[in-house]
Design goal:
With 97 residues, the chain is of the alpha/beta class. It has a single domain (8-82), classed as Transcription Regulator spoIIAA. It is 29% helix and 22% strand. It is built from 3 helices and 3 strands, in the order E-H-H-E-H-E. A 3-stranded parallel β-sheet has the order 1-2-3, covered by helices on one side.
Length: 97
């Protein structure tokens, strides 16, 4: 991607807490996000992470835990969203239909 001219990436991380990522039906782990993000600054690639604040089972403690990887990785931007999408995705346990 970099060779093709990509100079920025955005990650739909949603949560920096492993248990919350599973709860949201994410197909990757916090460690995967770390591995994907770490080499970007040295290669001159800006990157951002989207984080969700709020949603079922969420509280102020979850929100601070979400930001720990961001402190470590120092992305170009962290985009905070409030609330959660309601989806019928088969692997999402956030809402029972």
């Amino acid at each position: 991607m970099l060779d093709a001219g990509c100079d920025a990436l955005e990650f739909g991380t949603d949560s920096g807490a492993p248990v919350d990522a599973r709860f949201l039906g994410k197909s990757f782990t916090v460690d995967t996000v770390r591995e994907s993000s770490r080499p970007l600054p040295e290669r001159g690639v800006d990157f951002a992470h989207y984080i969700i604040f709020g949603g079922p089972g969420r509280d102020r403690g979850n929100s601070w835990r979400d930001l720990r990887p961001e402190d470590e990785l120092q992305p170009t931007a962290v985009i905070g969203m409030t609330g959660i999408r309601i989806s019928r995705a088969p692997n999402c346990t956030a809402v029972r239909w």
